[in-house]
C-alpha cells in the first residue's frame, strides 16, 4: 500500500469495512464477576453443602446427640448472627486483635536483635545457642511461668502471643541480613557510608523482604497462640469465646470462634502481603 | 446322746423335740445371717450381669465400659477410685476402664460422643447435658455439699465479700467459668450487693493456677479438694465466704440412657458398685486415702488432706445420701437453670420436671431394698425439722461440715426396713 | 589527585580441608599515574579481581603495600569508588536515589547542590528521563550506567571497575565500552579496569598490566601508545593484540583452549 492509500483509508475506516475482526472488550458485569468468584470457591462450596447435609439431615437420623458434636453450617450461621448482632463477636475480635497488636509491637524488638546477630559474628555466636533452645518451646508451655512473672491479666496473655511472633521475625531477620549480596555492602562502603549508615540505610532495607516474610509468619503464629494464651486469665477474646463455649457444650459457638480466627488470620496475612507488594515492588520474595 | 432311760420321760422328750426343731429352724437363719453381708455391709452373693447384656455392650462397642471421673473433685474421686481398685464392677461381671478428666465439661464431651458411658459432674455440667438433650440418667449422688469457697491471700485486707464493694478498678476474681463455682459466686455476689463487671470481674482460671494465688488476682473460688489444699495444707490463703447458704449442692453419677433402656442389669450393677464402694470407704477411710494417694493425678496431695476429704465427703452423712431423691433436686436445680438461662448459658428454659426426668431412681431403690435401707425423700444433709423450703432462697442452716459436730449416726431408728450388718455388728429395723 | 602505587603486593588464602594454601598474588607491583586509564588483564584465576578488592580496601594484602597519593590503603572509602560486575544497585532506590546515595552519606552537601550533581551525572551517562525508574525496570546496560554515575557522583580519586561489562551481550558490551571512553573523556579520572578481554583493554586503556595465572604475577606492564579513538582494524591494534595473545598463549595449554573460545570469538 502506498502511504496515500494508508492515510486515506484511515479516516474512513470502520470495523466492518476493513475486514478486521475488532472485538470491543466486554465490561465485566457484577453477575459475571460473582460467577467467577463462585467458580473459584467451587470446592469449598461443595464441602459446605455436604456438611449441611451430613449434620442437618443424615446425622439427626442416625443419632441426634451427635449433632451437638458437629452442628450444621446453618446452626453455625445462626449462632454467628446472634453473636454479631449482640456485639459480642466484634468485641471479642477487637480484644484479641488488641492483644495481638501490642504483642507485635514488642516483638518488633526482634528486628534490631536479628540485624545485630546477622551482622556481627560474635553476637550470633553468643546469642544463637539461647535462641535455638528457646525457639522449639511452644508458647503454651510458657503459661505457668508467665503467670508467675506477670500475674493474671492482659500482660500475661500478650506475653504468650509475643513468644509466638518473636521467633519467626528474629530468624527471618537474621536470614535476611546474612543473605544480603556482599557487593551491596561493598558498594555502600566504597561510596563512603559509615557502619551506622550501612546498617540503617542498606542492611535494613535489603533485608526488608525477608523481614516482612518473618512478620507474616510471626503474626500467624501469634494468632494461633491466641486460644492457648486466652485459656487463662482472660474474660474476652476469641480464644476465651471458644474456651467458654466449650464448658457449656456450645459447639456451634466454638465453630464460630474457630472460623473467625481462621478468617481474620487470612485477612491479616493478605494485608501484610499487599503491603509488602506496595513497599517492595522489586522483590519477588516479599510478594510471594 | 441321751440314754433310753432318760428319753422315756415325756417332758424331756418334748423339750428335746422343741430344741431340735428350734435348732433346725434357727440354723439356716443363723447360717444365712453369717453369709449374707460382707464386712462393709453389702449383701452376698454378688448379682452378676447376664451374658445377653454383655453381648449387647460388645455389639455397641461399649466393652469394656469407659467410666469418666475427676481426680480433684472430692467425694466423687474416692468413690470412683474404690470401685476401680476393689474390682466392684468385675465382681459383678463387668469389665471397665477408668478415664481421668480435669472437669465436668470435659467429661460432657466424652459422654456426648458416647466415648464414655458413665460420668460424674456437678450441677452446672449436668444442666448442660439436659439442656442439649444428651441422653443420660442420674442414678446416684456423689460429693454431697461440695464446699466452694472464696479465698483471698493471707495478706489481703479483705474480710468478707462486702469489702469488694466499690473497688476501683474492679477486683479480679479467678474462677473456673461455667462451673458450679461460678454459679455460687454469682448468687453470692448478688446477695452481698456486688455488681459483677463493676465491683468485681471474673477471669477464667483453672484450679491448678488458682492454687498459686497468682499476682493480679484479688480472690479465687475453688472447690474441694483445692479449696482445703489452699486454706488447710499450704495455708497461703483464707476463706472469706462459703457456698452453703446459697445453694444445696449435689454431684451426679450418671449413665448413658441406652444402658438404662436396654441393659438395666448393667445399670443396676453400676449403681450397686457405687453404693458398695461408699460402704467400703465408710469402713476403711485410711485405706481409701492410701488408694487415692496412689493415683498419678493425686500423688502430690498430702495424705492427711486426702483423709480429711474422705471424712468430710464420703463419711460425714448417712450413706443414704447416695439416693437421687429426684423431687428435691428437681426443685433446687430448676433455680440454677433459671439463672443460667438469664445469663445466656443455656439454650432452653428447664423446669423441675426436666430434671426429674433425667433421674432414674429405680436402681437406687432396688439397691436400698437389698440392703434393707428406707428410701429417703430428702438429701441426708437436710435435718428432720428443717424450716426451709427447697427452691426458696435464702436457706436456713442445714447439716454441713461446719455445723455437724460428729458424723451423722447410721443406722438410726426408722432408717432400716430389715436387718442389716456392718463391721460385724447387726442392726435391726 | 589519584596516583595509585601497588608495591610488591602478595595475597595468600589459607587452605580449607585439604590444608593447602592458595597463593593468589605474588609480588605484584605497578603504578597508575594520575588520570591514567589502566587495565588489569589476565585469564580467570589470575587474581585480578583479588587485586581490585585489595585496592578497593575490601581485603588486606598479606605482604607489600598499596598507596593512593602516598596515603596507605587500609579500608574502603569514597576516594576509591567501585563499579561491580553485577551492578550492585540498591533495588529499593530509584536511579536518582542510587546516584544520590554517596552524596547523602557525606552530609555536608546542601540539598540543592546534591540535586545538581545528580542531574549532571544522569545526563553524563545518558539516562535523562529515567530518574524515577527502579533498577528492576531497567536493562543490564542501563543499570551499569547508573552504577557508573553513582560511583562518579562522589567525585572519587580513582574509579575501580570489576569486569563491568562481562554480564552484557556482545553488542551492548561494545556500546558500553564506547560510553565509558566518552565518560572518561568528559570527567577525566584515574581508572582501573579489570577485564579478561584483550580487545576491551586495548580499546580503552593507556596502560595494560598483564597478569599471569595463579599465583598472579605481572607478566608485562604495557603502555598503549595508539591514538584515540582506537579501531580494531588498525595495524597498531592488531599488532598489540597479537603480542598480548602470545603472552597469554604461554600459559598452560588446556586452560588456554577454554579461554581462547571466550576471548577470541573470531579466532
Automatic annotation (TrEMBL), chain A:
Family matches, as InterPro entries: MetI-like, MetI-like_sf
Keyword rRNA-binding: no
Annotated Gene Ontology cellular component terms: plasma membrane
The entry's keywords: Cell membrane, Membrane, Transmembrane, Transmembrane helix, Transport
Record has Ribosomal protein as a keyword: no
Region entry Disordered, spans: 1-20
Biological-process GO terms, alphabetical: alkanesulfonate transmembrane transport
Main subcellular location of this protein, as a coarse class: membrane
Subcellular location as annotated: Cell membrane
Membrane topology annotation: Multi-pass membrane protein
Protein name, as recorded: ABC-type nitrate/sulfonate/bicarbonate transport system permease component
From TrEMBL, chain B:
A GO BP annotation: alkanesulfonate transmembrane transport
Domain SsuA/THI5-like: from-to ranges: 84-287
Record's keyword terms, sorted: Signal
Subcellular location: Periplasm
Gene3D superfamilies for the chain: Periplasmic binding protein-like II
Record-level GO cellular component terms: periplasmic space
Signal peptide: 1-31
Main location group: periplasm
Superkingdom classification of source: Bacteria
Pfam short name (any one): NMT1
Cited InterPro entries: SsuA/THI5
Sequence similarity: Belongs to the bacterial solute-binding protein SsuA/TauA family.
Protein name: Sulfonate transport system substrate-binding protein
Taxon lineage: Bacteria, Pseudomonadati, Pseudomonadota, Betaproteobacteria, Rhodocyclales
TrEMBL record, chain C:
Gene3D superfamilies, per the entry: P-loop containing nucleotide triphosphate hydrolases
Gene Ontology MF terms in the entry: ATP binding; ATP hydrolysis activity
Keywords attached to this entry: ATP-binding, Cell membrane, Membrane, Nucleotide-binding, Transport
Identification of the protein by name: NitT/TauT family transport system ATP-binding protein
ABC transporter domain boundaries: 4-238
Keyword match Nucleotide-binding: yes
Family of this protein: Belongs to the ABC transporter superfamily.
Amino acid at each position: 500500500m502506498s502511504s496515500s492509500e494508508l492515510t486515506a483509508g484511515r479516516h474512513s475506516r470502520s470495523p466492518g469495512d476493513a475486514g478486521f475482526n475488532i472485538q470491543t472488550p466486554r465490561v465485566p458485569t457484577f453477575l459475571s464477576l460473582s460467577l467467577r468468584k463462585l467458580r473459584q470457591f467451587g470446592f469449598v462450596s461443595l464441602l459446605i453443602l455436604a456438611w449441611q447435609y451430613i449434620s442437618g439431615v443424615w446425622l439427626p437420623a442416625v443419632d441426634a446427640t451427635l449433632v451437638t458434636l458437629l452442628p450444621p453450617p446453618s446452626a453455625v450461621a445462626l449462632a454467628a448472627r446472634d453473636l454479631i448482632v449482640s456485639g459480642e463477636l466484634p468485641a471479642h475480635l477487637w480484644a484479641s486483635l488488641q492483644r495481638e497488636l501490642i504483642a507485635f509491637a514488642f516483638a518488633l524488638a526482634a528486628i534490631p536483635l536479628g540485624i545485630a546477630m546477622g551482622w556481627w559474628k560474635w553476637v550470633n555466636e553468643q546469642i544463637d545457642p539461647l535462641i535455638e533452645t528457646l525457639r522449639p518451646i511452644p508458647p503454651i508451655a510458657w503459661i505457668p511461668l508467665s503467670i508467675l512473672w506477670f500475674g493474671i491479666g492482659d500482660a500475661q496473655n500478650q506475653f504468650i502471643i509475643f513468644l509466638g511472633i518473636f521467633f519467626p521475625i528474629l530468624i527471618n531477620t537474621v536470614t535476611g541480613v546474612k543473605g544480603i549480596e556482599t557487593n551491596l555492602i561493598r558498594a555502600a562502603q566504597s561510596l563512603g557510608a559509615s557502619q551506622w549508615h550501612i546498617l540503617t540505610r542498606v542492611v535494613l532495607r535489603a533485608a526488608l523482604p525477608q523481614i516482612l516474610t518473618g512478620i507474616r509468619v510471626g503474626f500467624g503464629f501469634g494468632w494461633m497462640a491466641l486460644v492457648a494464651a486466652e485459656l487463662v486469665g482472660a474474660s474476652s477474646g476469641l480464644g476465651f469465646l471458644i474456651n467458654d463455649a466449650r464448658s457449656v457444650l456450645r459447639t456451634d459457638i466454638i465453630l464460630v470462634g474457630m472460623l473467625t480466627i481462621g478468617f481474620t488470620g487470612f485477612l491479616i496475612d493478605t494485608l501484610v502481603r499487599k503491603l509488602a507488594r506496595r513497599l517492595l515492588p522489586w522483590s519477588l520474595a516479599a510478594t510471594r | 446322746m441321751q440314754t433310753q432311760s432318760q428319753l422315756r420321760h415325756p417332758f424331756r422328750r418334748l423339750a428335746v423335740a422343741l430344741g431340735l426343731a428350734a435348732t433346725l429352724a434357727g440354723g439356716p437363719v443363723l447360717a444365712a445371717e453369717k453369709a449374707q453381708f460382707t464386712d462393709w455391709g453389702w449383701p452376698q452373693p454378688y448379682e452378676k450381669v447376664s451374658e445377653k447384656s454383655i453381648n449387647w455392650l460388645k455389639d455397641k462397642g461399649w466393652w469394656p465400659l469407659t467410666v469418666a471421673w475427676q481426680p480433684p473433685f472430692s467425694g466423687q474421686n474416692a468413690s470412683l477410685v474404690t470401685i476401680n481398685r476393689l474390682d466392684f464392677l468385675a465382681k459383678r461381671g463387668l469389665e471397665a476402664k477408668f478415664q481421668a478428666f480435669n472437669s465436668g465439661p470435659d467429661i460432657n464431651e466424652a459422654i456426648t460422643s458416647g466415648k464414655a458411658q458413665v460420668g460424674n459432674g456437678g450441677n452446672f455440667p449436668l444442666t448442660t447435658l439436659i439442656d442439649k438433650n444428651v441422653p443420660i440418667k442420674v442414678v446416684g449422688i456423689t460429693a454431697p455439699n461440695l464446699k466452694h469457697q472464696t479465698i483471698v491471700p493471707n495478706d489481703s485486707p479483705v474480710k468478707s465479700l462486702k469489702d469488694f464493694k466499690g473497688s476501683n478498678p474492679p477486683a479480679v476474681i479467678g474462677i473456673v467459668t461455667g462451673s458450679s463455682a461460678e454459679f455460687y459466686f454469682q448468687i453470692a455476689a448478688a446477695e452481698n450487693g456486688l455488681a459483677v463487671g463493676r465491683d468485681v470481674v471474673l477471669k477464667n482460671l483453672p484450679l491448678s493456677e488458682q492454687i498459686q494465688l497468682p499476682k493480679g488476682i484479688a480472690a479465687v473460688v475453688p472447690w474441694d479438694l483445692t479449696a482445703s489444699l489452699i486454706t488447710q495444707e499450704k495455708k497461703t490463703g483464707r476463706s472469706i465466704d462459703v457456698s452453703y447458704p446459697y445453694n444445696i449442692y449435689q454431684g451426679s453419677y450418671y449413665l448413658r440412657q441406652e444402658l438404662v433402656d436396654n441393659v438395666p442389669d448393667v445399670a443396676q450393677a453400676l449403681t450397686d458398685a457405687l453404693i458398695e464402694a461408699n460402704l467400703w470407704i465408710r469402713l476403711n477411710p485410711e485405706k481409701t486415702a492410701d488408694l487415692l494417694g496412689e493415683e498419678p493425678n493425686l500423688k502430690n496431695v498430702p495424705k492427711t488432706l486426702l483423709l480429711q476429704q474422705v471424712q468430710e465427703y464420703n463419711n460425714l452423712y448417712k450413706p443414704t445420701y447416695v439416693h437421687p431423691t429426684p423431687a428435691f433436686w428437681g426443685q433446687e436445680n430448676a433455680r440454677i437453670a433459671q439463672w443460667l438461662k438469664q445469663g445466656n448459658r443455656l439454650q432452653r428454659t428447664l423446669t423441675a420436671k426436666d430434671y426429674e426426668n433425667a433421674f432414674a431412681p429405680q436402681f437406687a431403690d432396688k439397691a436400698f431394698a437389698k440392703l434393707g435401707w428406707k428410701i429417703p425423700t430428702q438429701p441426708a444433709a437436710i435435718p428432720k425439722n428443717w424450716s426451709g423450703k427447697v427452691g426458696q432462697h435464702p436457706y436456713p442452716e442445714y447439716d454441713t461440715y461446719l455445723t455437724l459436730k460428729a458424723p451423722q449416726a447410721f443406722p438410726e431408728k426408722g432408717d432400716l426396713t430389715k436387718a442389716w450388718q456392718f463391721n460385724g455388728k447387726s442392726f435391726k429395723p | 589527585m589519584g596516583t595509585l602505587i601497588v608495591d610488591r603486593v602478595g595475597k595468600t588464602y589459607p587452605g580449607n580441608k585439604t590444608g593447602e594454601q592458595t597463593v593468589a598474588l605474588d609480588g605484584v607491583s605497578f603504578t597508575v599515574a594520575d588520570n591514567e586509564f589502566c587495565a588489569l588483564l589476565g585469564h580467570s584465576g589470575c587474581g585480578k579481581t583479588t587485586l581490585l578488592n585489595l585496592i578497593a580496601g575490601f581485603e588486606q594484602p598479606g605482604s607489600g603495600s598499596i598507596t593512593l597519593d602516598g596515603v596507605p590503603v587500609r579500608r574502603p572509602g569514597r576516594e576509591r569508588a567501585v563499579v561491580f560486575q553485577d551492578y550492585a544497585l540498591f533495588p529499593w532506590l530509584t536511579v536518582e536515589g542510587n546516584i544520590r546515595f554517596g552524596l547523602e552519606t557525606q552530609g555536608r552537601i546542601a540539598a540543592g547542590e546534591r540535586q545538581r550533581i545528580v542531574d549532571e551525572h544522569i545526563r553524563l551517562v545518558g539516562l535523562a528521563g529515567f530518574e524515577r525508574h527502579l533498577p528492576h525496570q531497567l536493562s543490564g546496560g542501563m543499570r551499569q550506567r547508573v552504577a557508573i554515575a553513582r560511583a562518579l557522583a562522589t567525585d572519587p580519586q580513582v574509579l575501580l571497575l570489576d569486569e563491568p561489562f562481562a554480564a552484557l551481550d556482545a553488542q551492548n558490551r561494545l556500546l558500553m565500552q564506547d560510553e565509558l571512553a566518552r565518560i572518561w573523556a568528559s570527567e577525566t579520572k584515574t581508572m582501573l579496569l579489570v577485564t579478561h578481554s584483550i580487545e576491551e583493554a586495548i580499546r580503552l586503556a593507556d596502560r595494560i598490566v598483564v597478569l599471569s595465572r595463579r599465583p598472579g604475577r605481572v607478566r608485562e606492564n604495557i603502555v598503549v601508545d595508539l591514538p584515540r579513538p582506537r579501531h580494531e582494524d588498525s595495524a597498531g591494534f592488531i599488532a598489540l593484540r597479537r603480542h598480548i595473545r602470545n603472552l597469554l598463549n604461554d600459559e598452560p595449554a588446556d586452560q588456554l583452549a577454554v579461554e581462547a573460545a571466550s576471548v577470541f570469538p573470531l579466532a
